[in-house]
Amino acid sequence: MLLLVASVCWPFLAEGAKRVRLRRQVRAIRPLWQLLTQSTPEVVLPLPGGLRKDAELVRYRYVIEIRDSALALSGHVSEHQREAVRSALADAGPGGTEREATAEAAVLLHAARAERAGEPPRFPERAVVREGGDLDAEAEWLRKVAVALRSPATRAAAEALRVDAEPVGAVGAAGPTGLAGPAGAPRPADAPRPVGPVGSAGIHGPVGPARPVGPARPVGPPGPHDPAAPVAPTAPDSGG
């Protein structure tokens, strides 16, 4: 009898546990979804009111729209900056999955702020959100990223990215976490080339002393074919 009752009740219990887990994931992911979709409202698809209570459908919607929004915002962060955030967080303490989630949260937070500030994207689009093997794994990862949004380390790394951001081609100074600018450190200035003394024509020789100047030749009166001879006036054209 006990086995019969268990076999009848188990599907209902399993379904109830699944709904609870889905609702928890939806609540945990919502802050991340709101952060990103406020910056990219074009990725949000309308959902009929009757379906908004379907936790499984809402979770699916959140995952897809977070992924689309992150891709649209990825042009605000270079690959170099992403690696710099990971390196800075590695030195700060958190490790493993927590560090990866914090780095991803910092990148998304910075990108969303840059978009809302009206800054144009400066880098190629690329995936910045880790994709899991299935929807459950991906939703669980996004839950960790959403939790990391509240971390002081995330806010500090996002602020460092903001300070570190420079126009393309400019040399960026290191930010609070030691992030290097997108163009790296300035190259040392080349040493000036040595310039020789003024030569006979008044031109600085590139190297070495000027050529010696010989004595001036005597100049006689202009001859008939000398270029310095006066030129005879030309008769006006009569038109005939």
Write the layout of secondary structure elements.
Blueprint: H1 2-39, H2 55-73, H3 79-92, H4 96-116, H5 135-148, H6 152-164
Helix pairs in contact: 1-2, 1-4, 1-5, 3-4, 4-5, 4-6
The count of β-strands is 0
Topology order in helix (H) and strand (E) letters: HHHHHH
Q: Could you give the distance between the termini?
A: 136 Å
Residue stretches low in confidence (pLDDT < 50, at least 5 long) are 167-178, 180-214, 216-240
Average pLDDT taken over every residue: 73
Radius of gyration: 37 Å
Percentage of residues assigned to helices: 40-55%
Number of DSSP helical runs: 6
Fraction of residues in β-strands: under 5%
Describe the protein's architecture and organization.
By secondary structure, this protein is an all-alpha fold. The protein has a domain at 11-164. 50% of the residues lie in helices and 0% in strands. It has 6 helices and no strands. Helix 1 runs parallel beside helix 2 (55-73), helix 1 packs across helix 5 and helix 4 crosses helix 5. The longest helix is centred in the first third of the chain and has 38 residues, at 2-39. The radius of gyration is 37 Å and the shape is globular.
Keywords:
single chain; 240 residues; mainly alpha; 0% strand; globular; disordered C terminus
Summarize, please.
The chain is built from 6 helices and no strands.
